[in-house]
Amino acid sequence: MSDLRRELLDTSDAPPDLSPDLRFLASRQAALAALLQDHADRYTALYTAARDTGPTLEIRHAALQSAGNLATLLQSLRSREELQVALAHAPGFVPTPLLAIDQLFYSFTLLAAATETPDDVLEAALTPAGVTELLQANRVQDWLRGLTETRPDRMNQ
Amino acid sequence: MTPRGQSQAPAIDPEFAELIAGLYYALEDNLERCARLTHQQHEGDTGTDAHQRRVEALAGASRIAYVQRVTFEAITRLVDIRELPPGVLPIGVLGALARLAYALTALAEDGEPQREQLLTRDEIAHLPSQYAIEDWLQKRRVSNPSHPSSPGAP
Fold first, then answer.
1. A64 part of contact set with chain B, CB < 8 Å
2. Is B98–A98 a contact, with Cβ atoms under 8 angstroms apart?
3. pLDDT by residue (tens digit) across B47-66?
4. Chain B environment of A71 (Cβ under 8 Å)
5. Residue A4 lies in a domain
6. With an 8 Å Cβ cutoff, are B101 and A109 in contact?
7. By CA distance, what is A6's nearest residue in B?
8. Is there a contact between B62 and A81 if contact means CB atoms under 8 Å apart?
9. Does residue A125 sit within a domain?
10. pLDDT grade, residue B87 (50/70/90)?
11. Using a CB-CB distance cutoff of 8 angstroms, which residues of chain B are in contact with residue A68?
12. Is residue A105 part of a domain?
């Protein structure tokens, strides 16, 4: 496992007084929020390079690695979706915008599989403007704001 | 497809129906693919077998990514989902396909796949019931009895 993925799955920085379920959720959501902002920039750079020079092996390899980073956290969060359902009506809790974040994961995946052919699947991937729009969507902004304002540890108080 | 803001017939737009069908076919294909490649990797494939597994896994993940991206753009820009008949949107299919795509990207990467990113064979087999896909399919058959996949259809 890469150091980054080990770090993404580490729950030791979650508040120790939380239940195991809330520690899991707090830790995964914080890691995903940090990864989202970093990987949005990384995607824009890779996409632009692929449009300029074609999808080289290096670009495709980096894209697959980034897709894997996001997938590590997304698989983990989706495997415990019942936690977010249970918290749906907790005051201030904003569910993870999985469907929106998935779009970045899918776009990395398309970039990883891109070829030089004109009808390339890359046409379906997010553009840099699309990434900006995605990050600025209300659902994503509300979630990011909610993570800093209302942590899951305050849900059971 | 009818752009958002214009009047839309109560029936499902044929192009949107095609998209939904595409999602379902991607699910069927990749349930089998993910189970087979997971088993192959678990058995310790090496060399050419491992290379072919990575290539096929990326092809599966890429197909899911394509249909999901096209569907997302349709439901956010082209179709007013509030005007769709209840139960048409395959929310469960989107979730199950996402789980498969995460696992397939793990199977596509070099080196040992990450356990947390993979699905077990039991988890793969359980996805259709976990995401209530049989139930959704059954309702679609009832609302579209002339479809060839519906019981009693000609």
1. yes
2. yes
3. 999 999 999 999 999 999 99
4. 101-103, 105-106, 117
5. no
6. yes
7. B114
8. no
9. yes
10. confident
11. 105-106, 109, 114, 117
12. yes
What does the H/E/C string look like for chain A?
CCHHHHHHCCCCCCCCCCCHHHHHHHHHHHHHHHHHHHHHHHHHHHHHHHHHHCCCHHHHHHHHHHHHHHHHHHHHHHCCHHHHHHCCCCCCCCCCCHHHHHHHHHHHHHHHCCCCCCCCHHHHCCCHHHHHHHHHCHHHHHHHHHHHHCCHHHCCC
Report if residue A12 sits inside a domain.
no
Number of separate domains in chain A: 1
How much is the pTM?
A: 0.88
Q: What is the pLDDT of residues B21-50, one digit of tens each?
A: 999 999 999 999 999 999 999 999 999 999
Confidence at residue A116, expressed as pLDDT on a 0 to 100 scale: 78
ipTM: 0.91
R_g of chain B, CA atoms, integer Å:
18
| From B64, B65, B116, residue closest to A76, measured CB to CB | B116
- Does B114 touch chain A if contact means CB atoms closer than 8 Å? yes
Residue A19 has pLDDT above 50, yes or no: yes
Q: What is the pLDDT of residues B108-120, one digit of tens each?
A: 999 888 888 999 9
- Domain extent for A28: 18-150
User: CA of A123: which chain B residue's CA is closest?
Assistant: B66
